[in-house]
Amino acid sequence: MNNVIDFINTNRDRYVEELKEYLxxxxxxxxxxxxxxxxxxxxxxxAAMGHVGLENVRLIETPGNPVVYGDWLKAENAPTILxxxxxxxxxVDPLDLWESPPFEATxxxxxxxxxxxxxxxGQVFMHLKAVEACLRQxxxxxxxxxxxxxxxxxxxxxxLDNFVREHKNELAADVVVISDSPMFDRGVPSICYxxxxxxxxxxxLRGSNTDLHSGSFGGAVANPAFVLTQILTQMKDRGGRVxxxxxxxxxxxxxxxxxxQFGKLPFNERRYRNELGVPKLFGERGYTTLERLWGxxxxxxxxxxxxxxxxxxxxxxPAVAMAKVSMRLVPDQEPxxxxxxxxxxxxxxxxxxxxxxxxxxxxxRPWVTDFDNPxxxxxxxxxxxxxxxxxxxxxxxxxxxxxxxxxxxxxxPSVLFGVGLPDENAHAPNEKLDLGNFHNGIIASAVLYDEIxxx
Length: 455
Ligand code: BES
Ligand code: MN
Ligand code: MN
Description:
Elements: H1 2-10, H2 12-23, H3 35-52, E1 55-60, E2 67-72, E3 80-86, E4 106-108, E5 111-113, H4 121-138, E6 144-150, H5 160-166, E7 175-178, E8 190-192, E9 194-195, E10 197-206, E11 212-213, H6 224-233, H7 256-264, H8 269-276, H9 289-294, E12 298-306, E13 316-317, E14 320-329, H10 335-349, E15 355-364, E16 367-368, H11 374-387, E17 392-394, H12 402-410, E18 414-416, E19 432-434, H13 435-454
Parallel strand pairs: 3-6, 3-7, 7-18, 8-17
Antiparallel strand pairs: 1-2, 2-6, 4-5, 5-19, 9-16, 10-14, 10-15, 11-13, 12-14
Helix pairs in contact: 1-4, 1-13, 2-4, 3-4, 4-13, 5-12, 11-13
The protein binds ligand BES and manganese (II) ion (MN) (2 copies).
Ligand BES binds near residues 120 and 154.
C-alpha cells in the first residue's frame, strides 16, 4: 500500500483543484429551478467515475434525479463493497451570511468552504480519489466495489428505497461503506453505528379569508398565529418530553452498558455549549447531552411564519399561520406509525376556530447496529493508518434514510466512516471541510478497500 499512499501524498493539491470543480455545481435538490444542475452534477459525477477507472459507469434514471452507478469487480474471491453517497446539496439561504460564495469553493486556513464540501461531495470525492490511486498504482483493487450516488438524499431519498428493491441483485455485496457524517471531534476519528430517523410535516392554519383589522375584529375571532403557538406548546412538556400519546411506546431504551460507553467519550459539555453560543443547554430530563442526541427522539419546530414581520408595527390579525415541524426518531420507532400518532393528536388539540391543513413531507427510518463484524475491524485499522489514531465508536443524531433499507432489503451491514467535523456547518452558511481530514480520508479509504479485500 505504500506506493498508493505515496501517490496520494504527491497528488494532494490536484485533488483540491478537482474538488473545487465538483463543488461549483449548484445541485440543490430541494429547489425545482435547479433540476438542470442536478442532471449536470450527475453527469460530472459519472465522468469523474470513468476517469478514476471505474467501469460500467452509467446514470440510472429514477422518477426523480438519476442514481450514478459505477463499479470495479475484478477482484476474484474477494468481498464486494457497496459504496453509497449523495451528490445533491442543501439550499444556501441565507446567502448574505456566507463569507465566500457557496458555489465558488474557497480555501481558508486549511479548510475548503462551499456548499457540499462536507455534506457530501467532498467525502464522496475522497473515495473516488482512493479508487484512482489504487488503480493507477496497482492496476487493481483488493476488493470489488460498486458505487451508487444519489441525487435526492437531502429531500428524503424519495425514490431510493424502490431503486434498491428493484436492483436488489445488481446491488448484491458484503458490506456498505458510507462517508456522510462528521467525526466525533477534530483529531478524534470515529465510526458511527447509529442514526436517528425522521418524519417531517407542514402545518397550515387558516382563520379568516383575508387579513383583518385587529381593532375592528380583534376579540371576535381566533388568531391563527396565536392558535398555532398554543398547538405547538402542547407538543412537549417543560421537561423536554414529547406529549404525543404513544410517542415513546416503541423507543428501545438505552442499555446501561451503552450509556456508560457514551459517558466515557471525550465530550466537553461546557465547550459544546460555548461553541453553539446557547445560554444554556436544554433537553429531555434524565438524559445526558449525548444520550439526548443519539438515543432519544425529539420534536422540533423547523420554521414558523405568520402575519406582519417587517420593520414597524401593523395592527392586523393574520388570516393564516404556518409551521414546519419534524420529529427525530430512534429504534424501534417507525416513521409511518409516528406520523399517524402525530396527526391524531394534532387534530385533537387544534380548536374548531381554525381550518387545519396537514402535509406530510420526507422522512426516514432510524438505524443502529452492533459493531463486532470484520468490516468494522478493517475500518478501524484503515482509519488508524490514515489518521494516526484508532477510531472511537459513536452514534449520530442525523438521518441517512437508505441505511435502514440496505439492512432490511439487502441484509447488509453499513460502516459509516465520516471525516467531517462537528463544526462543519452542514446545512448552514459557510459549510466547510478540513483539507487535512480530506487528505487523510483518501488514504484511509484506500487502505480500507485493501483491508476489506484481505478480510
Ligand atoms: N449527512 C447527513 C446525515 C447526517 C448528519 C449524518 C449528521 C450524521 C450526522 C444527510 O445529508 C442529511 O442531512 N440527512 C437529512 C435527512 C432527511 C432530509 C431525511 C437529515 O438528517 O436531516
Ligand atoms: Mn449527507
Ligand atoms: Mn445533509
